[in-house]
Design brief:
- The chain has 1 helix and 41 strands.
- With 341 residues, it is mainly beta.
- Among the domains are: 1-63, no CATH class; 75-138, Tie2 ligand-binding domain fold (Beta Complex), CATH 2.170.300.10; 183-223; 284-341, no CATH class.
- The protein has a 3-stranded antiparallel beta sheet with strand order 13-14-17, with no helix packed on it. A two-stranded antiparallel sheet has the order 1-2. A two-stranded antiparallel ribbon has the order 3-4.
- The radius of gyration is 39 Å and the shape is flat.
- The chain starts with 8 loop residues before the first strand and ends in a 7-residue tail after the last strand.
């Protein structure tokens, strides 16, 4: 049994709904609303209509309000035009312009229907002309084949639609019992075997588990295998795991081990830095090398300190302590040289 509404289709794999244009939600019950500015399948696309235009919830096409035109209703009516899609002509004399919505002439210094008469003696300025009664001037933006009342201008909706412009579809509501999250089957009598912490949805009919990103398995109990992430663990990580780095099982972002950086964690810390995110600064002395992972110092080998040589081996965590008294190289072991060597 497919529970998808409004002509939504059911997946043959897990029963999830694929909603048609204009609807969204688990069962395709949610209608794209113009005020939300969305349209298309699952209401994922943004409407681009401007200046108060109506956005078609299915294909995103724009129905302009009076006074505007263009694909997205971005253009104001040019001089001499007005109304829906700026399709009607208006004629105002003496350099005056008409209202882009109603077509009425806005007269300055003149009066009359078309601003054809000078202001009476002793008067001046603006005067709005009589309302121009034409079909284009009084038409309402009724949609879905609704009729406009010839006197009031209200929209008379066909059966199945409602709203001021008949732009809302009247849904026939059926009584549908939706099982709780952990139940499925007839009368919700069966218990789901899904891990509730790792599951987005237990199918209300067959009981299959729809796992959250980062988990897999029949009951969504298993984290994604190494090198994989995302929903159903289908995406492959690009992290260099040979450096000890990890891949976030949900986002796929690489979590670098100490001593490495970069998007793939394949770059060693620059010289002089070490540790997590290469944020720690090395403190090795006397030319010693610094381990890029832990910051430990590897002292350089030297010679025994004698009267004829001032070269000294070094010791200590930072290689800043000299080896004295017959000790040489980086470990300061006792020299075995004989005969003054």
């Amino acid at each position: 049994l497919c529970l998808c509404q409004n002509n939504g289709s059911c997946s043959s794999v897990d029963g999830s709904c694929k909603c048609p244009s204009g609807f969204s939600g688990p069962l395709c019950l949610e209608e794209c609303e113009e005020v939300r500015g969305k349209h298309g399948p699952d209401c994922i696309h943004d409407c681009k209509c401007q200046n108060g235009a109506y956005c078609n919830k299915k294909d995103g096409s724009c129905m302009c309000t009076a006074g505007f035109s263009g694909r997205f209703c971005e253009n104001k009516c040019k001089k001499g035009y007005y109304g829906i899609d700026c399709a009607s002509n208006c004629f105002c004399y003496n350099g005056n312009e008409c209202d882009p919505v109603t077509g009425n002439c806005h007269c300055v210094g003149f009066t009359g229907k078309h601003c054809e008469e000078p202001c009476p003696e002793g008067t001046f300025g603006k005067k709005v002309s009589f309302t121009r009664i034409t079909k284009a001037a009084t038409i309402s933006i009724c949609v879905n084949e609704a009729r406009c009342h010839p006197i009031s201008g209200k929209c008379i909706c066909l059966e199945g639609f409602h709203g001021e412009r008949c732009d809302h579809k009247t849904q026939l509501l059926f009584e549908i019992t939706v099982c709780p999250f952990d139940r499925f089957g007839p009368n919700c009598e069966n218990e789901c075997a899904c891990n509730p912490n790792n599951t987005k949805l237990c199918h209300p009919i067959i009981g299959s588990c729809n796992c959250r990103a980062g988990y897999t398995g029949a009951g969504c109990n298993s984290p994604c295998p190494t090198s994989y992430y995302g929903e159903n663990c289908k995406k492959k990580c690009e992290c260099n795991l040979n450096t000890g780095s990890q891949c976030n099982p949900v986002t796929g972002k690489c979590i670098c081990a100490a001593g490495y950086q970069g998007i793939r964690c394949d770059e060693k810390c620059p010289e002089g830095l070490f540790g997590m995110d290469c944020k720690s600064k090395c403190n090795c002395k006397n030319g010693a090398s610094c381990d890029h992972r832990f910051g430990t110092c590897k002292c350089t080998a030297g010679m025994l300190h004698t009267q004829s040589s001032s070269t000294t081996s070094w010791r200590g965590p930072q290689c800043n302590l000299p080896c004295w008294g017959g000790h040489g190289n980086t470990e300061c072991r006792v020299c075995s040289c004989k005969n003054g060597a």
